[in-house]
Design brief:
Blueprint: H1 24-40, E1 44-46, E2 56-60, E3 66-77, E4 81-86, E5 96-101, E6 103-109, E7 115-121, H2 122-134, H3 146-165
The structure holds nickel (II) ion.
């Protein structure tokens, strides 16, 4: 099981660099990330969240869909947006509606370096955009207005303090 980095860790704020080796080490890391994600009961996990400053993330949806996105690029976004309540394994216990495009087109490589293009909607589109942001050091709270962001951060810090003193 991998440690999940929490708010305040520097690696969560870095702009990650491209993956260059599609080797066993990458496959082993991805497998460990899937196990970590399952244990944490999440739907997506980006490399920087496990302390690796590389451009890739994994998605695992409740319907059983599992997919890796290596060196991804979002190449299209719908004009239509929708709000959806997001959380993040790096900020456990806090949630807030975030408005994002409802559909995206993403180009990426799979774990073997084979390129693919995916048109995503619904939960997949939402998770892709959230995880993609992680690769640029952006967290969902950064997508809120200043007041909302402060409220969520304060709630997170309060929960975190309580946890440490328990
Ligand atoms: Ni997240």
């Amino acid at each position: 099981m991998l440690d999940i980095m929490k708010l305040g860790e520097e690696v969560l704020r870095e702009k990650c660099s491209d993956v260059t080796q599609f080797d066993d080490a990458l496959h082993i890391l991805i497998q460990a990330m899937y196990e970590t994600l399952e244990e944490a009961d999440g739907v997506g996990l980006a490399a920087p969240q496990v302390g690796v400053d590389k451009r890739f993330f994994i998605v695992s949806l409740p319907d059983g869909t599992k997919k890796e996105f290596i060196n991804p690029k979002i190449t299209g976004m719908s004009v239509e947006t929708n709000p959806y309540e997001e959380g993040c394994l790096s900020l456990p216990g806090v949630y807030h509606d975030v408005v994002r495009p409802s559909k995206v087109i993403i180009e990426a490589k799979d774990a073997n370096g084979v390129p693919f293009t995916l048109k995503a909607s619904g939960l997949m589109a939402r998770v892709i955009q959230h995880e993609y942001d992680h690769l640029d050091g952006v967290l969902f709270i950064d997508r809120l207005d200043e007041e909302e962001k402060n409220k969520v951060v304060r709630a997170y810090e309060k929960k975190n303090r309580k946890k440490r003193h328990r």
